[in-house]
From TrEMBL:
Pfam families, sorted: Copper-bind
UniProt cross-references to PROSITE patterns, sorted A to Z: COPPER_BLUE
Domain Blue (type 1) copper residue range list: 44-158
Principal location class: periplasm
GO cellular component: periplasmic space
Listed name of the protein: Azurin
Keyword Amino-acid biosynthesis (UniProt): no
Cellular compartments annotated: Periplasm
Keywords: Copper, Disulfide bond, Electron transport, Metal-binding, Periplasm, Signal, Transport
Length: 160
């Protein structure tokens, strides 16, 4: 059997076209992680000292677990987010608000997100729109319980 160059070219083209039909599409960009699990631990500390939030997230959710055993009145933990430039004033003014308000001033617009104050073993979540955050801005999260705000801090960094 005699095969012409034309016939070989036709077979190669057909084979190439059929293999292209089975080619895998390019993998989509990985989806951003739009939540974080944070532990408020005994010893006045968070287990995570930095959270990275993608601007590709519509909402970001923080899930807080208080891993201690004491009631909130003795050693509660919460998670509060502010711009870093506002953190000290929010803490100072919040301390005057007392335990009924979880040591946060009611309606303080500088508080971007906050969970309720938790007793040991409890958990809570807070979600906030990422569009309220600006890339390049410094953000601090902290626990507003008296004497916890200084050691229980972390940075929130906006990425993408």
């Amino acid at each position: 059997m005699k095969i012409s160059l034309h016939h070989l070219a036709l077979c190669a083209a057909t084979l190439g076209a059929s293999s292209a039909a089975f080619a895998q599409p390019a993998a989509p960009a990985s989806a951003p992680v739009c939540e974080a699990h944070v532990q408020g631990q005994p010893g006045k500390k968070f287990d995570l000292t930095e959270l990275r939030v993608s601007k590709r997230c519509a909402q970001f959710t923080v899930h807080l677990l208080h891993t201690g055993k004491k009631p909130w009145q003795e050693a509660g933990h919460n998670w509060v987010l502010t711009r870093s430039q506002d953190t000290e004033a929010v803490i100072r003014e919040g301390q005057r608000s007392g335990p009924e308000r979880a040591w946060l001033s009611r309606g303080d617009a500088r508080v971007l997100a906050a969970t309720q104050m938790l007793s040991g073993g409890e958990h809570a979540s807070v979600s906030f729109p990422v569009e309220r955050l600006s890339k390049g801005e410094d953000y601090t999260y902290f626990c507003s319980f008296p004497t916890h705000a200084e050691p229980m801090r972390g940075k929130l960094v906006v990425i993408d």
